[in-house]
Amino acid sequence: MVVRETLSALFSILVFPGLAFAVLCALTFEWLDRLIMARLQGRVGPPWYQPVADLIKLLAKEDILPTGASHTVGAVLPLLSLASVLAAAMYVPVAGHVVSSFEGDLIVVLFLLSLPALAYFVAGWVSVGVYSIVGGSRSLLQYFSYEVPFLMALATPAILADSWQISVIVARQPTWGVFTMPLGFLLAVVGLIGKLKRDPFDIPKAASEVVAGPLTEYSGRKLALWHLTVDVQTVVGIMLLVNLFLGGHTSTFFAVPGWAAPLLFAAKALAILVGLATASVLYARLRIDQLAQLGWKVLAPLALAQILVALWMVG
Amino acid sequence: MMDRMTIPIGPQHPLLKEPMAFTVTVEGERVLEAAMRLGYVHRGIEKLAESRTYVQLVHVVERICGICSHVHTTTFCDAVESLMGLEVPPRAYYIRALLCEMERIHSHLLWLGVLAKNVGFDTVFMYSWRDREIVLDIMEELSGGRVSHAVNILGGVRIDLDAAQVQRILERFDALERQVERALEVVEQERTLRARTQGVGILTPDEVRRYCVVGPTARASGVDVDMRRDAPRPPYDELDVNVILHDAGDVWARTVVRAHETRESLRLARILLANLPEGPTSARARRRVPAGEAVARSEAPRGEVFYYVRSDGSDTPARLKVRTPTLTTLATLPRQLEGVALADVPVVLAGVDLCIACADR
Amino acid sequence: MDRDAVVQAMRAALGAAVGEPRTLPVDDLFVSVELTALRAAVELLQNEFDIWHLSTVTGLDDGEQLLLHYHFWQGSGLTLSVSLPYERAEAPTLSDLIEVAGFYEREVAEMLGVTFVGNADLRPLLLPDDWDEGPPLRRHVDGQGGQ
Question: Is residue B357 part of a domain?
Fold first, then answer.
């Protein structure tokens, strides 16, 4: 019994819906993202194995840092970031399956998802190059602009469901959250774009200004881990949104047989991915001061309004 | 974190298409001052010209620039032909002008893509360079080269068009026109593009005059200069060129001016194709050029191109002086960059449409 | 530009310092001016005729002397030419009258070895910092040597 339980737990953590599944999803989503953006831009896009090939290529490359940069810290930071997003993946239900679930796991997930942003900034600081430092300071400023509206928007489903446990929120949704709190959904998506540093919020790593921002000096294995972190963070973020705002694997409009629930979940996740890719393609990159203005003058007040509405709806 | 930092931009940097060195001192996100160093692509063309024949030089000057190559050879041929007193057939003038206008179209579309890339708007970059392929394909069909055409010879041009080619070109112009109209809409109305380019890199008309700035950059500040209208060489003396002006003087104004100029060039190219005069495409030129001096000016995509040729009666020039439009725009850059946000540096640099190869020669 | 009027005004103000104008293709008028009268001539062009566009400054070595051509434009071309002896390759700067002239003068300075008196910034514009073969556009300099 113990053996079976242990094996089952190990399978859950390492394979599904844990590490292997998360990494596989991450690479697949990266491919789909690049494909959609390419087609929208009139290009062809990469073949399905491109993200894997990129990862393998990076792992094989020389791993150098400038003189004066700390190799130890430079090596720990990507590991820390990847570990925290993979840990966050443990608590986000995938079509109802989750490695571990407890009251308050939403807060844990949000905390874990914020760690990479801080690590990103420190990575820029510690690698000494001028472009890295400027990119790092921009990433902190960006963090403050999107994180507050993002957190407030994600608190709204918890308020409505009177629980901070993601699986409970999914179960208690009377209908899709996007209908009961559309503003919250929109703010969550915008916040996710900022969190993932996607166009139009890819300011910290704007190639035309700071070469590659905080990660300019990283190469080889370290860079591979950073890329994987972003991919996993994308997947975790999207799945979080699907659970909180799109009803997870449940359906409110027509009955869905049990075997189709994962497909429904996947379809919703892909829909959000398409939305993110389209948003990336449609706009020019904002300036950091324009983003800060947007964050504090528009997003944060709207998020506050949404929370107040949610509180009123509940009690 | 908020103390001064010196950021090198160049000679190698993702935002620069050609090597030049800026050293930008920033405090936080604000640029305090910018220093500039040119000469990374200086090839000594003017000195080289003293030991090459005029025939060879037609091809050498084409290589001063990659994007405005044809207008360089046109201006050079203009200067030398007038020294020789050579009567160039009208058909040749029309073909030269046709390529000049197509070069303007492809240069402006290229530039639009570069500006879009610099503001992080990759989609516009992809679209405008894809549309640019239409013009490049036409030029390749006519001359054999997409960017370097070698169309001009002393006395005329070495290519010709037949009616079928003219028809095919006109059809492709229709497709291009639809795309140019769409690009114009984006440039004038898309909010994020306007947010990044309006109010950035402003040049007052007074500064334009003090620095003798030319081309779309000058016209975007309201200064009315265009060599096609002001120094009309055939066939521009028969064409009515609409000179497009704007009064904002910022990067957005320059974008609007260039977008409209693209449309205007398309219109002029159509007129040239419709009115191609019959006749030969070149006149025979002697090897030796009589002693004397000549000055020729043309309107390149970036502004006034100036050639001074001094001949001593032999088959190599005594002096060739080239002044390219970008040189004076570069002179304004250190001043334009003072006080802008770091994120606006690529916008300012892209907005003036630099062609360093031209400036360095 | 009414070039006859300009030449007449220059003659009236500067007398014998202004030489005979010659018309050149494509549409230019070359007027030689004594070195000492250059600044006064340019000021006259600016103040009386509002000629502000200086296309460039051509410097050349014709075997006997150095020549500087200042190419102005206002609807048509007008060039002021000054002659400099080899032994005294100095000219007054125009950078306080026309801001971009300082830029042009840097190039002439490095290519021909002319000193522009009053121009504080004569750093090399195009040549590398360690160029030591002499001003490239002088006749006697081969220009073929490299690093």
Answer: no
State how far residue C53 is from chain B, nearest Cα, in angstroms. 5
* Residues in CB range of A63: below 8 A, 6 or more apart: A219, A220, A221, A222
Residue B137: what pLDDT? 93
Residues near A260 by beta carbon (within 8 Å), at least 6 away in sequence: none
DSSP-assigned beta bridge partners for residue C29 = C23, C78
CB contact at 8 A, B201 and B250 = yes
Whether residue B150 lies inside any domain: the answer is yes
**A103-117, A164-178, B233-247, C96-110: range with lowest mean pLDDT:** A164-178
- Of residues C2, C18, C137, the one with CA closest to residue C82: C18
- Enumerate residues 6+ apart whose C-beta is below 8 A from C59: C66, C67, C68, C69, C108, C111, C112, C114, C137
Q: How far is CA C129 from the centre of its chain?
A: 24
Read off the CATH number of the domain in which B176 is found.
1.10.645.10
- Report the phi/psi class of residue A264: left, alpha or beta, with left for phi > 0 and alpha for psi in -120 to 50: alpha
How confident is the model over A78-93, as pLDDT tens digits? 899 999 999 998 888 8
Give the SS3 label for residue B234: coil
Burial class (CB in 10 A: 0-12, 13-18, 19+), B189: exposed
Residue B16 lies in a domain: no
- B343:A199 CB<8 A: no
Q: What is the least distance, in Å, from the CA of B36 to any CA of chain A?
A: 17
Alpha carbon of B89: minimum distance to chain C alpha carbons (Å): 17
DSSP class per residue in A249-309: T--SSS---GGGHHHHHHHHHHHHHHHHHHHHHHSPPPPHHHHHHIIIIIIHHHHHHHHHH
Per the omega criterion (within 30 degrees of 0), is the bond before B80 cis? no
Q: What's the rounded Cα separation, in Å, for the pair B112 and B129?
A: 9
Count of CB atoms situated within 10 Å of the CB of B115? 29
Cα C100 from Cα C96, distance rounded (Å): 9
Report how many domains make up chain A. Answer: 1
**Residue B105: inside a domain:** yes
Residue C46, burial from CB neighbour count under 10 angstroms (0-12, 13-18, 19+): middle
Asked whether at least 3 C-beta pairs link A and B within 8 Å, the reply is yes
What are the angstrom distances between the C-alpha of A87 and each of A11, A82, A100, A108, C111? Answer: 15, 8, 10, 10, 66
Please check whether residue B38 is in contact with residue C128, taking contact to mean a CB–CB distance below 8 angstroms.
Answer: no
- Mean pLDDT confidence for B33-49: 89
> Is the CA virtual torsion A47, A53, A54, A55 positive or negative?
positive
Residue C37 has pLDDT above 80, yes or no: yes
> According to the model, what pLDDT value does residue C147 have?
37
> Which amino acid makes up residue C45?
L
Q: State the residue range of the domain holding B76.
A: 42-352
In order of their start, the domains of chain C are 3-86 (3.30.460.80)
| Domain, as residue range, for A158 | 2-314
Q: How far apart (Å, rounded) are the C-alpha atoms in residues C91 and C106? A: 12
Three-state DSSP at B295 gives strand
3 state DSSP class of C67:
strand
| pTM, full prediction | 0.88
Closest residue in chain A to residue B27, using alpha carbons only: A134
For C17-46, give the DSSP string: GB---EEETBTEEEEEB-GGGHHHHHHHHH
Of A42, A202, A289, the CB nearest to B341: A289
Helix/strand/coil percent split, chain C, to 5: 30, 30, 40
Q: How many CB atoms lie within 10 A of CB A272?
A: 21
Can you tell me the ipTM of this complex?
0.89
**Chain A contact for B119, CB < 8 A?**
yes
